[in-house]
Structures are given as C-alpha cells and as structure tokens.
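Minutes, project check-in
Item: structure for the 386-residue chain
Input as provided by the requester:
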Amino acid sequence: MPGFFDDETGGHGGDLARAAQQWSPAGGRLIDFSSNVNPLGPPEGLLEYLSEVLPEIMHYPTPQARELRGKLAKFLGIPENRLIMGNGANELIHLLLLWKRPRSVLIPAPTFSEYERAARLAGARVEYFSLPPGEKFDPHILSTRIEQGDLVVFCNPSNPTGMLYDGKDLLELVRVAGEKGALVMVDESFIPLTGQPEESLRHNLYSNLFIALSLTKLWALPGLRLGCLIGPETDILELTRWGDPWRVNFLAQKAGLYCLARQDYLEEALQLIETERRFITEGFEETGGLRVFEGAANYLLVQAVEPGFDVAHCQEHLAKRGVLIRRADNFKGLNRAYFRVAVLKRPDNKRLLEEMAAYIKKFRAGNTEERGENEQDTGNYSGGER
C-alpha cells in the first residue's frame, strides 16, 4: 500500500496504530514525527493526578467547562464572555462553519486539510488562494475575491509550512473582509509554541473575527482533546446558550486546570523547540538534497530536491525502521517531494537525522546505478548504429 491517507483522518499524522499494523516497525516502536504536539509531552505529574481524580467520572462534567474557561481566559488575557471551550480546536472549527453556514470558504494552499472538510460538511463552496512555502502574505491579493457571506480561513503559523505571518497583515485582511460582510477565522493553534504571542489577534474586538486555539497541541493532550474558540461576545454567548453544555469531558477539564498551573512548563518547551528546531534544520541541510523551510513552530516542512524522490517510498522505508514522518503531498499545492517532521527531543531527533541521511545516501546510490545502466545501454545502442 503506497499511501498513508484515508477518509477517516483526511491524511493527518499521529495514526500510530495503523502505521504499526501497516509497516511492522523494527523493535515494534515508532518514533512519531508525524504529529506536531509539544515535544515535552504532558506536564510532569499530570498522569498521576488524573489517576487520583478518575473515580469522579461517575459524575457529569462541569457545564461549559466553567472553571477551566475562567482560568484560561485570564491566562490568555481576554474576557471570559469571548471564550468557549471544546473537544479540541478541530471540533470548534467544524462547529463554527456548521453554525455560520458561509456561502464560500476561502482557504490558503497549502494548509491544514480539516478546513476543507469542515467547509464541505457545512455545504459551502471551497475556494483556494495560493500561499506557497516561504512567500510573504499580501492581504490585498484577496480583496477582490472576498464577497458578502464568505468566510476566510487563515492558519498562523501555517500548517504545514510553519511560517509565522505578521499580525498587522492579518488585521488588514479582517478589516477588508468586514467591509464586505465576510467572516475571518484565524487558527492560532501553534502561536503559543512560537514564543511570539504578540502576533496573536485574540485581543482585537472585530465583530467578524474568530480565533481557534488548540490546547491539545500546547499541552500534548491529543488523546484527551481540548481547545477553545475566541470571538465576539454576542456570538460566543449564542453558542454557549444553544450548544452542547458537556462538550469538554471531565478528565480533559481536570487536565487543563492542572496544566494552567504549570507556568514553567511552557518556558521549558519553548527553549527545547528553538534549540531542536535549529538542530534538525542544520542536520538536514548537512545531509544535502533537502531544503528546509524556515519555521517558527514545533515542526518543519522539508522539500527533497533529489530528482525522483518519492515521499511515499521514503515514509515506508523510515517507518519500517521505527521512524514515522508526515507525508505532505496531500496538502494542496505540494507534491511527493514534501514531508513534515515534528520537533522532538534530542535522542529522537538524532535518530531521525541518521535514518534520513542513510536513506538519502542509499537513494543517491540507486539513482547513480540506474543512470549508469542507462548510459551503458545508450552507449551500446550508439555503437551498433555506427
């Protein structure tokens, strides 16, 4: 099976069960570079704490995650009435589109595949605008395409490119969209992991602006699911009044409260991400044949410049050796030369670099041998013609 995409996940990373079943990695363990969550893992002591409170699952969770919502609002520096909690940012993105039912959804390419899935489920027409890796965003390029009833989606920093865009440019996009009667949703799930919170738009009070934030990514809780949506008070109040009051389960609420109390955890994570992102970048560049796009988050987009490189083959080879990367060829605008890797801890990152260097060396040797055979065949043929 050459692919690792299916209709269940839309091609997301992190499906370790399927990857292990498909490729039977050496030693039975996969180092997961396909899922871009906080490389520190959950804050120390969280698992023990959740074990202690586990008996309380016999009770309903607090409606609307009331206590967590209040403390998270203080942590983010916004009024509580502008915030609603959810079962991950992804659920809230779907909820927003199903609720607003936009006429068209404008989506950058490449970007996170879930925006298109949510738009199509909401019955909206999907339109893409090009935002290639490494290129600056010009908000005025979109101005002629935005119409009343549209919703513009933006991911900052971008997934999969990791590029962090200027908040002033995005505010100009919000302003233009507002004048035309359109909404803007900015997915800021990775901004807390960039160390540049000043680029967040969450403090701006535009009536057409919504911000999605993944706490799953921030605190490494993908199995629990936790996120929030920030928006105008009137809209958030309506969602709160008519939406599911138990959207966030008991354990996720407890985990969120525990994580909010660990302020030093995020500082440690930011230091680790910055150091290891540089380590991986330099290692890939030394390998040669790989272009690493400059990113600001806890992952990197990589383009293989070796002729004939096929990311499906590379993924399979590495997975069998216990290293799982994220193919990026299902991101619109990217092809089989692209893949994404998460930033993990040093021992795992060294393993990634070693395995990738070995793969590139083997790939080159195979190409050289193939070229030699082709040249030999050509030479024999030419000799016969003479």
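Outcome recorded: The CA atoms of residues 203 and 365 lie 54 Å apart.
No further action items on this chain.
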